Amino acid sequence: RDNNEEQMTILRYVPVFLLVTLLGYGQVPQRHRRVELPIQAEIPVRGLYRRLVSQQIEGFPTAKRMKVLSLYLSNSLIHRISQARACHDDWFRLHPKNDEKAPSTWTEFGLFSGFDDRGQPQAFQIEKTEAEEDGSFRVYVRLTEGPPEKPWNWRVAVVVMSEEGKFVINDVIFLRDKDVETESRLSELLT
Length: 191
Prior knowledge:
five-stranded antiparallel β-sheet, elongated
């Protein structure tokens, strides 16, 4: 009888043990996923800036380059870039003599890096990634230009969101620093 009681006691705890085990396994992927998401959010940023550094892109990308870059961009950002490009092209169509300076300076602008001398970075480094309340991420990128003995650095914050099951770049924030007085966003500049 003692043997039967021991077996019954063990059998009573089996469902509890199974429940605890299942709950434990359910928690591990969630914690792992929370850690993994910022790393996944960096993937399109790393891909875009590798291309930007290896194939200098000032102003609007050509259609061929845009096709490649669109792999990293949200549909909304692709649409904004296309509209801005159409406005830019339309201005030059309406002013064929080209004796006037265009109202926008897209040719002196790096869409993903910034104005003037910031248009052609030679290197980049992802510094940190922060989760936002809306589910997006800000990926902070340090860009570098100039000779190795005296490099010049500046930072941008790339806004990454999930779209159609993958992370894509939805905006770029050109951060304020000693040379730039105000923060601006690519999405605002494109409108």
